[in-house]
Amino acid sequence: MPKHKPKRHSPSVDMTAMCDVSFLLLTFFILTAKARPQEPVIVDTPSSISTTKLPEAGTLTILVGPEGKVYLDMAGQHTRKALIDDMNEQYPMGLTEEDKLKFSIAGAIGVPRNQLKSWLELPSAERNKIPVPGVPADSTNNELGPWIHNARLAQFKMKQEGVVSDEYVIVVKADQNTPYPAIQKVINTLVDINVNKFNLITSQEADPNKVEADIE
Questions:
Q1: What pTM did the predictor assign?
Q2: What sections of the chain are H helices per DSSP?
Q3: How many Å apart are CA 66 and CA 117, to the nearest integer?
Q4: Is 47 helix (H, G, I), strand (E, B) or coil?
Q5: Which end of the chain is more exposed for a tag (fewer CB within 10 A), N or C?
Q6: What does the pLDDT read at residue 213?
Q7: b vs e for 77-103, b when ≥16 Cβ sit within 10 Å of the residue's Cβ?
Q8: CA–CA separation, 118 vs 103, rounded Å?
Q9: CA distance 184 to 167
């Protein structure tokens, strides 16, 4: 009696569910992703052989442009909201809740406190197009110190509440053509508010000692 061989069919996998999940994930990341705010000034940092990497989040950045203007930027929407609440209470600037919300999602600031409200009322696309005087950091009128001090306190408060995991890492990003007295003002400000640990951002260059060793 002849054996009956069943007809074999090639296996098939239904990919419909996987495609649905992929598109859902893609949609989620598109909707939740935030564009990084544009820096208010182009800074060409000096080069060094340092290989230390800064964290991608939890930084408080002090920008010093080629003309010596100082800008301040800090990460974290919740921290920024707590910061502006405290600053508006200590130094009344007449900010509304809408102004505070704009500040919490804005980029670097580079205006004195008395100009902050009018700067926030500008469309976000226009803020980097107008000339700004920078955050005052002179010994006779130093607004940079209170901003940094209160930002650190706000971040520490967010850490205690479990909103963030780390305190701020303070970094100074200056142009290679920035006059040294402008950088010294920033350093003096940090020392005055007992910030003795901060990082200078540089562009990485090859270590000549390591290059020579590789050649040998």
A1: 0.73
A2: 16-32, 77-90, 97-105, 113-120, 124-127, 144-160, 180-192, 208-215
A3: 26
A4: strand
A5: N
A6: 46
A7: eebbbbbbbbbbeeeebebeeebbbbb
A8: 12
A9: 24
